[in-house]
Amino acid sequence: MAIKTWIAGVALAAVAGIGGFIYLGAGTSPAPASTFVLLDGSQHTTADLKGKVTLVNFWATSCTTCVAEMPEIIATYNKYQAKGFETMAVAMSYDPPSYVVNFAQSRQLPFKVAIDNTGKVAQQWGDVKLTPSTFIVNKRGEIVKSYVGAPNFPELHQLIEKLLAET
């Protein structure tokens, strides 16, 4: 009985630790070198994002949480873009390009939308499989926070304001 309790405790601690790791992010690490192919065919790289605070969001049109959080992502972009904030919405490789284009046009997404046709970008960003997955990158090109699932937007806004204030 004591062994079962101990194993259950270790399992619970591991799950809590992983959950905390995902929620709090892995600390500061360099954003991976990636090339994003936008809907218009143009390309942007991770290096192009330096000097801006950037939200990189992996999403899919078939993901209900992704669709539900998109108005908040739009509002966040609109609130901070004039201050040096960028958003890159990366559609997953399994998302049909025509669905992504239709979604971006019908919702009038005001930020950059990329399609990860090969899945290479998702792999470079930590082998992203769950959507939505969101990364916050500071002006130096370092990932400072990551979220699996919808972010807590008031908390996210506080972080963005702090990062925008950094030199």
Quick structural gist:
Residues 25-165 form the Thioredoxin domain. The chain is α/β, with parallel strands linked by helices and 167 residues long.
Write a structural description:
It is built from five helices and eight strands; from the N terminus they run αββββαβαβαββα. The chain has 167 residues and is an alpha/beta fold. The chain has one domain: Glutaredoxin (3-Layer(aba) Sandwich). The strands form two sheets. A six-stranded mixed beta sheet has the order 1-8-7-4-5-6. A two-stranded antiparallel ribbon has the order 2-3. About 14% of the residues have low confidence. This is TlpA family protein disulfide reductase. Keywords: Membrane, Transmembrane, Transmembrane helix. It holds the Pfam family Redoxin. It comes from Acidovorax bellezanensis.
Q: Mind sketching the topology for me?
A:
Elements: H1 2-24, E1 29-30, E2 35-37, E3 43-45, E4 53-59, H2 64-80, E5 85-91, H3 97-106, E6 112-115, H4 120-124, E7 133-137, E8 142-148, H5 153-165
Parallel strand pairs: 4-5, 5-6
Antiparallel strand pairs: 1-8, 2-3, 4-7, 7-8
Instruction: Kindly report the spatial arrangement of strands forming the biggest sheet.
Output: 1-8-7-4-5-6
Number of domains: 1
Strand content: 15-25%
Low-confidence stretches: 4-26
Sheet/helix structural class: alpha/beta
- How widely separated are the two ends? 56 Å
The averaged pLDDT comes out at 88
Task: Characterize the biggest β-sheet.
Answer: 6 strands, mixed
Give the helix tally: 5
N-to-C order of helices and strands: HEEEEHEHEHEEH
Helix content: 40-55%
**Overall 3D shape:** globular
From the alpha carbons, calculate the radius of gyration and give it in angstroms. Answer: 17 Å
Q: What name goes with the CATH superfamily?
A: Glutaredoxin
CATH class: Alpha Beta
Domain Thioredoxin: 25-165
Protein name: TlpA family protein disulfide reductase
Transmembrane segments: 6-26
InterPro entries: Redoxin (IPR013740), Thioredoxin-like_sf (IPR036249), Thioredoxin_domain (IPR013766), Thioredoxin_ResA/DsbE_sf (IPR050553)
